[in-house]
Description:
Layout: H1 2-16, H2 18-25, H3 56-92, H4 94-109, H5 112-120, H6 131-134, H7 139-152, H8 154-167, H9 171-178, H10 183-191, H11 196-219, H12 231-238, H13 247-274, H14 276-281
Helix pairs in contact: 1-3, 1-13, 2-3, 3-4, 3-7, 3-8, 3-11, 3-12, 5-7, 8-11, 9-10, 11-12, 11-13, 12-13
Amino acid sequence: MKLPLILLAAIAAASFAAPLAVAVLGIDPNMVDLLDRLSAPSVAHPLGTDELGRDVLLRLLAGGRVSLVIGIAAALAAAALGTLIGLVAGYVGGWADRVLMRGTDAIIALPLLPLLIVLAALDLHKLGLPERLIQSNEISVLRIVALAVLVGWTTTARLVRGAAFVTRNRDFVRAARSLGAGVPHILWLHILPNVTGPLIVATTLSIGDVILFESVLSFLGLGVQPPLSSWGSMLSNAQELIATAPLLAVYPGLMIFLTVVACNLIGDALQQRLDPTTAARR
């Protein structure tokens, strides 16, 4: 677990240090210089420049910050929504469980990629959002996070629902009910601590899934919009230059690969550590 954790920490530290790198190098990552386009790596540009003469290293770091923010924010928000739905369905049961789980099944049954493409292409003006928000640079990031949460909470909801369904019949939960504890109190203090294991694992694994999801949308031109950049948008811009400048696609593709693999390895390691059966065998 140490190696993927160190790798992910190094990628995150480098990405979030992008403003510091900009200050040290004195180069604007969005500055266009057509006279210096597709240049080879040099002291001034360690990874060269792209098709518009922009520094590839700084754009890679800035894009990593956007991709990681999207992945972490969407994973946490989806985990929170899925946990709430799973706790209510697993503990309350009855009609609440049937309604919530049938809604979960309906979301799972939807064709994911076509649905996301349609939702990503929606006109935000028709949704009644403030014009100031629509015109902001961050709106594309918020849109992707919202889409990822919309379709990403189902796995967490099912995991939490199963754990809550088992835990609600434990003696300590029955004792809390007999003492007059309310449902919110039981869910927060007695049920939730007992589902944190699978919840942490699912959230960790979903970070990589969200980063891949953002990359797909950005590759299709429906993701992060300029002047912001992400690893997926860098891949999208590089697809027409594969023959002449293949490294422009290799760099962001490699970062996506390393980040997703690191997240998955960390999730697998956490699953083994938090699984009581595995811990008992050790």
